[in-house]
Amino acid sequence: MNFDLTEEQQLLEDSVARFVADHYALDKRIKLANGKLGFSAEHWQTFAELGWLAVPFDEADGGIGGGPVETMVVMEQFGRGLILEPYLATVILGGGVLRRTLEGERRAELLGRLIEGKLQLAFAHSEEQARWDLEDVVSSARQDGDGWVLNGAKPVVYNGGNADLLIVSARSSGGQMDSDGISLFLVDPKASGVEIQAYPTVDGLRAAEIKMTDVKVDGDALLGAAGKAWPIIEAVADEAVLALCAEALGGLEVLYKDTVQYTQERQQFGHPMTDFQTVSHRLVEMFMEYEQCKSLLYRATMEYAQNGHEAARTLSACKHLIGTAGKFIGETAVQLHGGMGVTEELRLGHFFKRQLVIESQFGNADFHLEKFAA
Amino acid sequence: MDIELSADDLKFRDDVREFFKAHDYKPGQDYAQWRLDWFKAAREQGGWDVPKWPKEFGGPGWSPTQHYIWEQETARANLPWDMPFGVGMVAPIIMNYGNAEQQERFLPDIRARTVNWCQGYSEPGAGSDLASLKTKAELSADGKHYVVNGSKIWTTMAHIADWIFCLTRTDASGKKQEGITFLLFPMKQDGIEVKPIITLGGSHSVNTVHFTDVKVPVENRIGEEGKGWTYAKGLLAHERTGLAGVSRSLVALEKLKYQAGTVKRGNGSLLDDPSFRSKLAKLEVDLQALEFTELRSLARAASGQQPGPESSILKLKGTEIQQRIAHLTMEAAGPHMAPWGGIHVGPKFASGGTQSYLGSRAFTIYGGASEVQKDIIAKNVLGIRTQGGSN
User: Fold this and answer.
1) Domains of chain A: which residue ranges?
2) Strands B268-269 and A194-200, how do they pair?
3) Which of B129, B265, B388 lies closest to A131 in CB terms?
4) Confidence band (pLDDT; 50, 70, 90) for B159?
5) Rounded CA gap, B327 and B361, in Å?
6) CATH fold group of domain A122-227
7) How far apart are CA A243 and CA A248, in angstroms?
8) Are strands B180-186 and B163-169 parallel, antiparallel or unpaired?
9) Residue in A202, A275, A334 nearest the CB of B338
10) CATH architecture of the region A7-119
């Protein structure tokens, strides 16, 4: 039994932590979030140079062959910095699909570009009526000679406005709720019939509504076998859940620790606020919830590293706990900061908003509790 | 026990509905003019523009039941924009503690909604512990005016207010509750600087306000020097009872149910989702109870008794329920809770839902944070002697 990081993992954590400390003070983040791109292209190149974009890819693909633990290490530190760069969209989701489907020259080319920081991706899968049910797909793919014609709509696609390529799911056969019959396609966002409405999100990130009207793609746009995308979708969704939970955990640490510090410094009624038991006990509860989340994240990450999708139930447990703890810790942090908690001036408000959005991605607490209980 | 409305009460309810219908805003109308006209018309109804003012100051003299009916009906109607600081907050203090001259000078404009007020209470170092405020008011050598220096924070609408009612310190030698003086002065003058504070929802309604040598004539002082805390405390109690918002929550919950029905989930709607439904149901149960807690409190007031213990929980429970409704509305939007910055995509209520949830976090902070409220209930209602504590 050992919960320590290996030397390499520790080095990775240290390097991401150093980057966050150097580049992600609140004022710098706000400036980036309000810029045209919504993140820093320069930072993205730094990620490439430091090998962070290569983390989950095999050495044969030019990657570093990292597993779920390495991703967790990176995402947790990103969470502590409230990083804006679209690592989840491009590396975890987009890269996750490409490394499971591409072959030969195209594999080498696209994964090479991704790892070098020259390729931005977005994963356009979930649909409005589906909420978080991954198999509920009504967008359609119709075979047309050697190619395909795509129709449908994909809401809230993170990085959708900045992506060089979109990975889009559509149903090539089967009924609305069938896991069988879903296909994945690589789509040029500039292709005729693709309509992209990009916008900022409440946590400072960027997303887009994507509409496809009779979009014609070539036969080689199909990723993997027609109608057989389900295991791939399931796998990248599992990895996204783990990545989001790790990111959330990093944020929760900041939220509870900032609150511990603030309430010790803030004086009311001639005492530091922590002299009042109603305050100190709630700080302890925040800390307890945080530690429980950390334990379940370790459990889910290690089980997934060992058993892949068989660990799905533990992943759901983790996302559920992160969701409920995120609400509790976030709301309590705001409350104990009093008026300062509801402003944009302290970083905690920004961390709180990120927790809320993580809760809306890949299934909220209720959704995962239901999955866990099923 | 009896919960039927009397024939007179039913008639009153119909009159209120009729009034709201007759004076509703019509698209294309000049809003500012409509607003002033609305209050004028409400005044002609016999003080409906100032429902809570006592009869001798032009209020309607309603029974508690009539107030309750009014609350219920206003929650559903489209009323003109109004801030609580004038009619609801400074006016009762001027009526109770101001002199006849001050009443004549300030009340008519407050009532007509032609002058906007803001409240200068909280300071960077004095939030829940309001009595520790430090903004200094020094009487000039000739005794004609005070000179005010210091800072206020969380001052809602300070950037559009014409006047401020302000707690200042005129004496720091005794107990902190003593030596506080209640002053009124115009906001648009030299020495007053207003800086916006942007809140979580990205909007600007609160501010910091800095005073540098602001001269306030002594005739703008309410009551006696050093007694301001007593005057303000009476108002705080008033503010606390106004915040349960039961009628508004009932309407919000109805709206949420409707909205959830428009959110697709698979082939059905979000209302088919068992965990969402059970959260809705739990909210409704709590709100049904709170509605009657409010009615019990009203009934007691109707029979002329002091507010009972039940009235002390109205703000705590009311704000908690408002926050839960806002949270569930945000949750109903699913992934569409995120789009921001004036973008309207996904369900119609989505962006507003997230905005109100973020805004709702302040409900348990302003007007006496929940922690302080509980201290007060522990002491005043349960009779518990606590250590340290808030007052």
Assistant:
1) 7-119, 122-227, 231-373
2) unpaired
3) B265
4) very high
5) 10
6) Butyryl-CoA Dehydrogenase, subunit A; domain 2 (2.40.110)
7) 9
8) antiparallel
9) A202
10) Orthogonal Bundle (1.10)
Bridge partners, B184 (sequence order)? B165
| HEC-encoded secondary structure of chain A | CCCCCCHHHHHHHHHHHHHHHHHCCHHHHHHHHHCCCCCCHHHHHHHHHCCHHHCCCCHHHCCCCCCHHHHHHHHHHHHHHCCCCCHHHHHHHHHHHHHHHCCHHHHHHHHHHHHHCCCCEEEECCCHHHCCCCCCCCCEEEEECCEEEEEEEEEEEECCCCCCEEEEEEECCCCCCCCCCEEEEEECCCCCCEEEEEEEECCCCEEEEEEEEEEEECHHHEECCCCECHHHHHHHHHHHHHHHHHHHHHHHHHHHHHHHHHHHHCEECCEEHHHCHHHHHHHHHHHHHHHHHHHHHHHHHHHHHHHHHHHHHHHHHHHHHHHHHHHHHHHHHHHHCHHHHHECCCHHHHHHHHHHHHHCCCCCHHHHHHHHHC
Please state the domain extents for chain B.
7-82, 116-226, 242-380
Q: For residue B182, give the amino acid letter.
A: F
Rounded-to-integer distance, Cα A342 and Cα A205, Å: 20
Q: Given the DSSP bridges, would you call strands B221-222 and A267-268 parallel, antiparallel or unpaired? A: unpaired
Q: Buried (b) or exposed (e) across A6-21, using 16+ Cβ within 10 A?
A: eeebeebbeebbebbe
Q: Which element (helix H / strand E) includes B321?
A: helix B314-332
Eight-class DSSP state of B369:
-
Angle at which helix A347-359 crosses helix B350-360, to 10 degrees, equals 140
Q: Are B228 and B181 in contact (CB under 8 A)?
A: yes
Q: Is 3.40.640.10 the CATH classification of the domain at B116-226? A: no
> Could you tell me the two tokens for A121?
């991706």
Q: How far is A357 from chain B (nearest CA, A)?
A: 6
Q: If you count residue pairs, one on A and one on B, with CB atoms under 8 Å apart, how many are there? A: 139
Q: Which two tokens stand for residue B391?
A: 């007052």
pLDDT tens digits, one per residue of A68-102: 999 999 999 999 999 999 999 999 999 999 999 99
**ipTM for the whole predicted complex goes beyond 0.90:** yes
- Say which CATH architecture domain B242-380 belongs to: Up-down Bundle (1.20)
User: Is-contact B236 B188, C-beta < 8 A?
Assistant: no
Using 50, 70 and 90 to split pLDDT, how confident is the model at B391? very low
How would you label B123-135 residue by residue, b for 16+ Cβ within 10 Å and e otherwise?
beebbbbbbbbeb
Please tell me the distance in Å from A67's CA to the nearest CA on chain B: 28
Of A197, A203, A271, the CB nearest to B345: A197
Cα dist from B300 to B244, B304, B309, B310, B380, whole Å: 17, 7, 11, 10, 18
- φ, ψ of residue B381 to 5 degrees: the values are -100, -50
Encode pLDDT of A179-216 as tens digits. Answer: 999 999 999 999 999 999 999 999 999 999 999 999 99
- Other C-beta atoms within 10 Å of A285: how many? 15
CATH second-level architecture of A231-373?
A: Up-down Bundle (1.20)
Would you say the pTM of this structure is higher than 0.80?
A: yes
Return residues 271-300 of A near B (CB < 8 Å): 271, 275-276, 278-279
DSSP at B84: S
**Pairing mode, strands B163-169 and B117-120:** parallel
Q: Which two tokens stand for residue B7?
A: 């024939």
CA distance B235 to B52: 13
Tokens of A272: 């530091």
8 Å CB contact of A349 and B200:
yes
Q: Spell out which residues of chain A touch residue B266, defining contact as CB-CB under 8 Å.
A: 129-130, 133, 136, 176-177
Identify the bridge partners of residue A206 per DSSP, sorted by sequence position.
A200
Report which DSSP code applies to B6.
P
Q: Is A34 on the interface with B (CB under 8 A)?
A: no
